[in-house]
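Quick review question:
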């Protein structure tokens, strides 16, 4: 299948400048929602798909592209967070995407080094990504399958089905988003990165957040964030130089 360019996503901080934390968190909120634009693609392209089989095929590919583009944005933000010593959001985004969107709607996601292929909604999309340097990665989403990936047929998806799946994905990751917010707050105004992520500093950071919408619980293994039925654990490294966000409550 031909793979013409459809969408691309630039990543990084030009000139080596670090993004300010409000921008990172705003972007993360958008990424956690994954790909709400895909809902619009489903609605608009399904209306136009009756024109011809070719139009229908293109519409299904565009739904897959929009969906995978949403995941690529979560990878952008995860990369920014990793530069601040905040790990785990890349894996959380992928787990939520597979568990709430791809699997329930009959899709498939093939992940290979540097290239992911999404078979979804009757169409296909390919995500290419590469590390440019210590601070930047490049992402590009194309129509079709990545080279060397088998073509797999998948059922179509409706607007209602996709909307429910996206909401579920966002719900699964809500506490993780709050945990990332707490961690990034520690780097505001810090001259040296990454900032130390000890249990006392994490607890202090939570205490400084006005009108926090989540509940926190401090234990020996880390800080657990609870929000609307979801939970995430902030686990500092032994030297408190990095912190990992993991789904579910802390075990200790």
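Suggested answer, residue by residue:
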């Amino acid at each position: 299948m031909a793979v013409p360019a459809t969408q691309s996503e630039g990543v990084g901080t030009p000139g080596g400048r670090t993004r300010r934390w409000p921008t990172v968190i705003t972007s993360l909120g958008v990424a956690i929602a994954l790909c709400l634009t895909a809902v619009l693609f489903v609605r608009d392209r399904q209306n136009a798909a009756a024109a011809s089989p070719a139009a229908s095929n293109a519409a299904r590919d565009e739904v897959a592209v929009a969906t995978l583009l949403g995941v690529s944005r979560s990878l952008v933000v995860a990369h920014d967070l990793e530069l601040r010593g905040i790990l785990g959001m890349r894996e959380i985004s992928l787990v939520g995407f597979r568990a709430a969107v791809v699997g329930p709607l009959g899709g498939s996601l093939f992940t290979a080094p540097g290239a992911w292929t999404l078979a979804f909604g009757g169409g296909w999309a390919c995500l290419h990504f590469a590390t440019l340097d210590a601070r930047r990665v490049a992402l590009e989403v194309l129509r079709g399958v990545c080279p060397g990936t088998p073509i797999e047929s998948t059922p179509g998806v409706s607007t209602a089905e996709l909307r429910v799946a996206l909401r579920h994905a966002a719900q699964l990751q809500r506490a993780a988003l709050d945990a990332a917010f707490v961690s990034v707050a520690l780097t505001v105004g810090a001259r040296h990165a990454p900032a130390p992520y000890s249990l006392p500093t994490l607890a202090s950071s939570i205490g400084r957040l006005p009108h926090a919408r989540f509940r926190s619980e401090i234990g020996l293994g880390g800080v657990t964030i609870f929000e609307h039925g979801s939970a995430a654990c902030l686990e500092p490294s032994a030297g408190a130089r990095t912190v990992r966000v993991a789904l579910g409550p802390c075990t200790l």
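Why it works: Helices lie at 21-32, 37-48, 53-83, 89-102, 159-172, 174-185, 199-208. The chain has two domains: 5-172, 192-247.
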